[in-house]
């Protein structure tokens, strides 16, 4: 039986999250953001998968202006960068703010058979889908003639 990456991540963070809740409940009257929400180097969250003929990357970027997002594929990496303006609070201060704001930059390793010259991207309902045609010829060894 296989475990999903979400289950593995949950099992990793669970003891830390419980400890944080205990400390918060015992010493402070207000909540902190969760430990899981602090990892901005892995923003935006992504799912990677494949079909028989494509490699597919799903990036979760709800509420972003698409003009502020840039995608590049090179040397086996998909790079996404962009920004969301930091909201200005009119009154009061936040006790917790889990909405991502500011600039981000993330690189995701692609399999060798993902062809960056045959990439397409689309956006719907907060999900940016990037697909690459699968080029299995890229996995075949190339004979190099010695001159």
From TrEMBL:
Domain SHSP: 37-147
InterPro entries in UniProt: A-crystallin/Hsp20_dom (IPR002068), HSP20-like_chaperone (IPR008978), Small_HSP (IPR031107)
One Pfam family from the record: HSP20
Family: Belongs to the small heat shock protein (HSP20) family.
Protein name: Heat-shock protein Hsp20
Organism for this UniProt entry: Photobacterium lipolyticum
